[in-house]
Automatic annotation (TrEMBL):
One GO cellular component, as annotated: cytoplasm
Cross-referenced Pfam families: cobW, CobW_C
Keywords of this entry: Chaperone, Hydrolase, Nucleotide-binding
Keyword Oxidoreductase tagged: no
One GO MF term attached to the UniProt entry: nucleotide binding
Stored SUPFAM superfamilies: Hypothetical protein YjiA, C-terminal domain (SSF90002), P-loop containing nucleoside triphosphate hydrolases (SSF52540)
Annotated ranges, domain CobW C-terminal: 211-297
Name of the protein described by the UniProt record: GTP-binding protein
Organism lineage: Bacteria, Bacillati, Bacillota, Bacilli, Bacillales
Reaction catalysis annotation: GTP + H2O = GDP + phosphate + H(+)
């Protein structure tokens, strides 16, 4: 019996994990692919982006590498029994430690039928270049995600100079000289790159104390100008914002909003999605953010 192949997609918040997942799904149309999606918050924007056609289990409200670690085994068995996939892809939260996820997938009841093919880490080039500006824990996490990958995608190269790409490649090789390093834009890779076999990674206990998330639900459209003003004032401790929003200028249109490393992105959404925004950052001042969003919404 051929084993189900497992790929683990890791990488810091907003580095391009869902973008890679979408690329892989497009290339693997000849395979039955199922997804285990993990979100730090209670609302999964990424699963809405991927849509209903792909078999998917979700682990919400926590991180797969610590508080939800024991659920991984149960979810993987469930995926196998319900969907009979050829390939399973785990998309971890941006704050997950790859070794812990790997460890969670090596339970004997899983290895009977599942083979871990690779841990793929996405590096957000511009953010990684400036990793010294984050707290020591966050910087260490970014580096360890690189250190323990079998394949590293140096992503967002469109936002980097050649010199910066060279510098980042050197930094990544210094952290991990065993991995393949591939420079990418929008996480575009050829599936042949994934033909590797992940060897054992060593587990160690890991936690990420400072990183938190909150979900805000809008009751209706907001002013786009005031929303942009709010974004401009966001402290650098806010690492990621994503979700669905409507603007007063075009109140019927749902917009998929993404904000990673200071760069906002707006895309029209055809489905009528819940108007929720997920905000992830280091030591969030939750009441202040909720207050600001209330003001945006109600005044
Ligand atoms: N300029 C540029 N933007 C990119 C690239 N890859 C992804 N993005 C954008 O970066 C944002 C985050 O991408 P995602 O794929 O959602 O990142 P993620 O790692 O899944 O994010 P989280 O799940 O929140 O950690 C989106 O707006 C993407 O369109 C790239 O190579 N270049």
């Amino acid at each position: 019996m051929e084993k189900v192949q497992l790929y683990i997609i890791s990488g810091f918040l907003g580095s391009g994990k869902t973008t890679l997942l979408l690329n892989l799904l497009a290339q693997w149309q000849d395979k039955k692919v199922a997804i285990l999606m993990n979100e730090f918050g209670g609302f999964n924007v990424d699963s809405k982006i991927i849509g209903d056609n792909v078999p998917m289990n979700e682990l919400l409200n926590g991180c797969i590498c610590c508080d939800l670690k024991s659920d991984v085994e149960v979810q993987l068995h469930d995926i196998r029994h319900r969907h009979h996939p050829d390939v399973i892809i785990i998309e971890a939260t941006g704050v997950a430690h790859p070794v812990e996820i790997y460890d969670a997938c090596t339970a004997p009841s899983l290895t009977e039928w599942m083979a871990i093919k690779a841990v793929i880490t996405l590096v957000d080039g511009p953010r990684f270049l400036e990793r010294d500006q984050y707290s020591i824990t966050t910087k260490r996490l970014m580096e360890e995600q690189v250190q323990y990958a079998h394949i590293v995608l140096l992503n967002k190269c469109d936002l980097l100079t050649e010199e910066a790409v060279k510098q980042l490649k050197d930094d990544i090789s210094e952290l991990n000289n065993q991995s393949q390093i591939i420079r990418t834009q929008y996480a575009r890779i050829d599936r042949s790159i994934l033909a590797v076999d992940g060897e054992m990674l060593k587990s160690k206990n890991y936690s990420h104390p400072g990183i938190q998330s909150l979900v805000y639900t809008f009751t209706g459209p907001v002013s786009s100008r005031r929303f942009v003003d709010w974004l401009r004032e966001l402290p650098s401790s806010i690492l990621r914002v994503k979700g669905f929003i409507k603007f007063q200028e075009n109140p019927q249109q749902v917009v998929l909003f993404q904000y990673a490393y200071g760069i906002p992105q707006y895309e029209p959404e055809i489905m009528n999605m819940p108007l929720k925004l997920v905000i992830i950052g280091e030591s969030l001042n939750k009441s202040k953010i909720l207050n600001q969003l209330d003001q945006l919404q109600f005044s």
